[in-house]
Design brief:
This protein has 246 residues and is α+β, with helices and mostly antiparallel strands. The chain is built from five helices and twelve strands.
Length: 246
């Protein structure tokens, strides 16, 4: 009987996840640095936050915003502002955006792929004989005392502590495996190219039995760059002041 219940729960979760993925495919999210596709019709504004439900992750807040876009018969979410406030006790995450509608979502998706990359030239030369990994773990109240080691292949490159960050130079091109383990293993695949930058977000998610690492290779470099900078800002805000030497 218990096995049947567990199977039904797994089927329900899979159906729910697939339904959400289909919804996400029907909404184009334009980050702060990405213009709205030409010809998009403005519908209205949207704001979503987790102020009254702080256990909700950034991903849940974004999915809620997408639901609001669909409910108003839109298919484009233009992010105007994202506000994050992390502390050891709570995480506040808010999205301000605008809702638009385009007639052909696939053409709109293709149009934003041509947005120039303004982040990479700022961080590395295109003639560099190495790549840069910007790894970070945002300050969070979730499992804040649990740390884990991040690996690139068989090499340990970063200790993911609550509110930590680092920059790693990689001198080998080609496919690479980023992974970490607590009770369970999480991993992501990378294709390393010299003169490129990669932002790796390290988090912890609460599992059914034990917490597990959550690794995200940020596809949007602008978002990765701003989140990496936010970790630095949060540390300066929440770190105790050091005594001066006299």
């Amino acid at each position: 009987m218990n096995r049947i219940i567990l199977l039904l729960l797994l089927v329900s979760f899979t159906v729910s996840s697939n339904a959400q993925k289909k919804k996400d495919d029907h909404v184009l999210v334009c980050e702060e640095n990405v213009p709205v596709p030409e010809g998009a019709k403005y519908i209205g504004k949207v704001k979503v936050n987790n102020r009254f439900m702080p256990q909700y992750s950034e991903e849940v807040v974004m999915k809620t915003a997408i639901e609001k876009v669909l409910n108003r018969h839109g298919n484009v979410l233009k992010i105007k502002k994202i506000n994050k406030s992390h502390s050891p006790f709570k995480n506040d995450y808010s999205i301000w955006g605008e809702i638009y509608h385009v007639d052909d979502i696939e053409i709109a998706k293709a149009s934003i792929k041509n947005v120039p990359d303004t982040i990479t030239p700022h961080l590395i030369s295109d003639t560099a004989k190495y790549a840069l990994l910007f790894v970070y773990r945002p300050l969070s109240f979730i499992a804040q005392l649990i740390n884990y080691k991040l690996h690139l292949g068989d090499k340990e490159i970063f200790t993911a502590k609550n509110g930590s960050y680092d920059t790693i130079k990689v001198f080998k091109e080609g496919p690479a495996n980023i992974w970490a383990t607590i009770e369970t293993r999480s991993e992501q695949q990378l294709e390393i190219s010299f003169g490129k930058v990669y932002f790796i977000k390290c988090e912890i998610e609460n599992g059914v039995v034990a917490p597990s690492p959550r690794l995200t290779v940020m596809k949007n470099l602008f978002r990765g760059y701003t989140e990496y900078q936010q970790v630095f800002a949060d540390l300066n805000i929440h770190r105790p002041k050091q005594y001066e030497d006299y």
